[in-house]
Specification:
The complex is a heterodimer. Chain A contains 19 helices and 19 strands. Chain A is an alpha/beta fold. Chain A has two domains: 75 residues, Ubiquitin-like (UB roll) (Roll), CATH 3.10.20; 352 residues, 3-Layer(aba) Sandwich (Rossmann fold). In chain A, helix 7 packs across helix 17 and helix 9 packs across helix 15. Chain A is globular, with a radius of gyration of 25 Å. In chain A, 46% of the residues are buried. The mean pLDDT of chain A is 91. The longest helix of chain B has 21 residues. The N terminus of chain B is likely disordered. Chain B has two domains: 80 residues, Arc Repressor Mutant, subunit A; 86 residues, Glutaredoxin (3-Layer(aba) Sandwich). The two termini of chain B are 35 Å apart. Chain B contains eight helices and four strands. By secondary structure, chain B is α+β, with helices and mostly antiparallel strands. Classes of the chains: A alpha/beta, B alpha+beta. Chains A and B meet through strand 7 of A and helix 4 and helix 5 of B.
């Protein structure tokens, strides 16, 4: 049923049941908020969304107030504006005045609010709380001094990722968001997904920057810096800088990185192709052996792997033992490629550019380090890449693209599918289908369109019906896998799991998103660029054919195992 | 060098910790009183454990988390919210000094200063021997008898600096004669 309400002397139609905030925002009225998150229950913690309603004595928080028929609302009366301004001024009174030195300078919601409310001077003076930053984690850095206690990170960590690595500690003006026993994130149950960074309105949560490391390596004469660019990075750079697909964003990034001093720039999609082929062949093998019990779970998302290791060690045996694309390529460069080109391993410095902060953690895992040499030395997020290009004074919108370096200079269309939830399941399904002699034209993959919740589909592979499923976010994954085992279902054979909602398109290392629309936009760009690829299947990738000859990486060889397969183990943390 | 410097303190802490762990009943016995493992059992359970063990150690909070199937961080958050929960050991004589309005007017502040001087500990601390610990609390509810302190559930009222000193001395004597 529709309601009529009056807002700022104008009549508008709203739906029954929605909150005042969503109703007003749907009609182009800006209501500032710091704690509100779409798809979450309202908390009313920041109180910035207050509006004046006729007949109500106090100002009400619009995020938690359902619309009523005939209500008269004022969103910009003097009383409302003064209340909001006072709230922001109070937040600023305990906030460090170092915007110029802040990583979120220009992207900070608190800064925007202060600017929009015309705050030009400090109004409240007092002692500030003393807080110490926490750089103990390999991926996420915390600076509680910049925290405004909006509880977004706490809610996403608890409700979406089921981890509760951070929570409110203490009370009153001593309250802070911290890990258990104030011990630091490295001993907490943090799974390094980086979703807290995405939702943080200020710079209280940021990534551990590898930019200085990379710049130092670029400066050294005897070090050869190899960049590996993930396809989804190209999509998100194209989205944020408004690049056209026909200009080929990946080649633009490649040319810019060469100007920065990169020795080689590789296409990480080539490693994605290897990963897809290997996982498909494992899947085919397990179907042929009448695979029983748990389905094969994808393991290319480091946050998901970490979650299983911490909370669900009983599922470790079901995880795919194939390394993630980043580690496959890192290891390949330092073994096969370095040997073939006569480069000493110590001189190779691998830098992956990823839409993910969890990859920083993955690069530091002990399984991915051999005799003191790590497969990937540094990982840049998309934010850091943009920062690097800015600080080097490179404008990629005005350059000409350059071809990437051989041998890993191209990928199949399937590699682009890794950039969003459901893509990998489809790629693996298609590859398995083709491996068992299916015709490319006969392959049909019916993908449900919903973003969250369960998504399943079944296809015929080699005369057997094989079930594929994909979920994104840990809470969905947990719910889905528990249901699978409760119902005793054996018709699902492969589950793709991504820790971030909508997969890597919504990853923790992406530019701070202004809403879910941006995530969808990145996903669409990935899909479009996929169509631009010369080859659609990993097995036809000419780069891999040239490097490996005929599929020798699919053998059960011990030497192959080192760079292609990995292992997982239970981890005991404070959880 | 640093190891040598911290070593005595570390040993002392361990002794106090072990003492408090030995007193009272085991954790499992307390857990048995809360068989339903409900979320709302958290605070009563923590209180029962603190009554027995003196304080909530990290190991205890982790054990409670495992038992109630709640994140450890969540429990730590709740426990730090309430002043009543302690995270460090208490001495044999746990002194709670009232700092409510009436006690403050009647000289509670100077009692605190005196206690800090003679015991060489401040609010929330325990001395090295594990004998005295000090906690400043809000009103105990005996304003007519201000200023007062509470030692192991016994109230000592209408104190002044002289009687406070004698009181502490009497505790020391009691401890010495018991040895």
């Amino acid at each position: 049923m529709d309601f009529q309400i009056e807002v700022n002397n104008k009549h508008i139609k709203v739906k029954e049941g929605e909150t005042l905030l969503t109703a007003l925002r749907g009609h182009g009225i800006r209501i500032p908020t710091l704690c509100h998150m779409n798809r979450f229950s309202p908390t009313g913690a920041c109180r910035l969304c207050v509006v004046e309603v006729e007949g109500k004595r106090d100002l009400i928080t619009s995020c938690s107030f359902p619309v009523e028929d005939g209500m008269k609302v004022k969103t910009n009366s003097r009383r409302v504006i003064q209340a909001r301004k006072a709230l922001v001024e109070l937040l600023l009174s305990n906030h460090p005045d170092d915007c110029l030195y802040c990583v979120r300078n220009g992207h900070c919601e608190l800064q925007w609010l202060a600017e929009s409310m015309n705050i030009k001077e400090r109004k409240y003076f007092g002692n500030k709380n003393t807080h110490y930053p926490d750089y103990s984690s390999t991926s996420v850095a915390r600076d509680p001094a910049k925290c405004i206690l909006c509880s977004r990170c706490v809610r996403i960590c608890e409700e979406v990722q089921l981890v509760t690595a951070i929570d409110f500690i203490s009370r009153g003006n001593q309250t802070m968001v911290n890990s258990a026993f104030n011990k630091g994130l490295n001993v907490s149950s943090c799974i390094h997904c980086g979703q807290c960074i995405q939702v943080c309105p200020t710079a209280a949560l940021t990534d551990i920057s590898h930019q200085e490391k990379v710049l130092a390596a670029l400066d050294k004469k005897d070090v050869r810096v190899m960049f590996m660019i993930s396809p989804s990075v190209a999509a998100s750079i194209a989205d944020i800088l408004g690049l056209k697909i026909k200009d080929n964003p990946l080649e633009l990034i490649c040319s810019a990185l060469r100007r920065c001093g990169a020795d080689k720039v590789f296409h990480l999609g080539a490693a994605s192709d290897i990963n897809i082929r290997e996982e498909a062949s494992n899947l085919v093998r397990s179907i042929q052996n009448a695979g029983n019990g748990m389905p094969l779970l994808s393991s290319c998302c480091p946050a998901w792997v970490r979650y299983v290791e911490e909370f669900r060690p009983e599922w470790i045996t079901s995880l795919s033992k194939t390394k993630s694309p980043q580690q496959i390529m890192g290891a390949l460069i330092k073994t096969n490629y370095a040997n073939q080109n006569g480069i000493p391993v110590e001189q190779v410095y691998n830098v992956a550019v990823m839409p993910c902060v969890g990859k920083k953690y993955e690069a530091s895992r002990e399984e991915n380090t051999h005799k003191g040499i790590s497969e990937t030395d540094a990982v840049l997020t998309v934010r850091e890449l943009l920062q690097l290009l800015r600080s080097c004074g490179l404008d990629i919108t005005n350059t000409e693209g350059e071809l990437l370096d051989k041998p890993f200079d191209q990928s199949s269309g399937a590699a682009w599918k890794m950039g969003y939830s459901g893509g990998k399941a489809e790629a693996v399904a298609r590859e398995a289908f083709l491996m068992m002699g299916g015709k490319p034209d006969a392959f049909k993959f019916n993908a449900p369109k919903n973003i969250s919740g369960r998504k399943e589909t079944k296809i015929q592979i080699g005369g057997k019906q094989v079930g594929f499923a994909w979920v994104s976010s840990i809470s969905d994954a947990e719910e889905y896998l528990q249901q699978l085992s409760e119902d005793g279902r054996e018709d699902i054979h492969y589950v793709e799991i991504m820790a971030c909602l909508s997969g890597c398109a919504g990853g923790g290392g992406q530019p701070i998103s202004r809403g879910f629309e941006q995530v969808i936009a990145r996903k669409k760009l990935c899909m479009e660029m996929e169509k631009n690829c010369d080859v659609s299947d990993p097995k036809d990738n000419p780069a891999l054919k040239a490097f490996f000859g005929d599929d020798q990486f699919l053998s059960e060889d011990d030497e192959v195992k080192n760079w292609l397969r990995t292992d997982f183990k239970e981890r005991r943390v404070v959880k | 060098m640093y190891v040598l410097y911290f070593f005595p303190i570390f040993v002392e802490y361990c002794e106090i910790y072990i003492n408090t762990k030995l007193m009272g009943v085991s954790l499992e016995k307390i857990f048995e009183k809360f068989p339903n493992r409900r979320r709302e059992d958290m605070i009563p359970l923590l209180q029962a454990i603190q009554d027995n063990h003196g304080f909530l150690s990290e190991e205890i909070i982790s054990a409670v988390g495992d038992y109630l199937r709640i994140s450890v961080n969540k429990i730590y958050g709740v426990a730090t919210f309430y002043d009543n929960f302690r995270f460090g050991p208490v001495g044999k004589f746990h002194i709670r000094l009232c700092h409510g309005t009436a006690c403050h007017v009647a000289g509670g502040g100077s009692l605190l200063k005196e206690l800090e001087r003679i015991l060489k500990i401040s609010d929330g601390e325990c001395d090295k021997q594990g004998l005295f610990s000090l906690e400043v609390v809000s009103c105990i509810g005996a304003c007519g008898l201000a200023p007062l302190i509470e030692v192991n559930d016994m109230y000592y009222t209408n104190l002044d600096l002289q009687s406070l000193k004698e009181l502490i001395e009497s505790f020391r004597e009691k401890e010495n004669s018991a040895l």
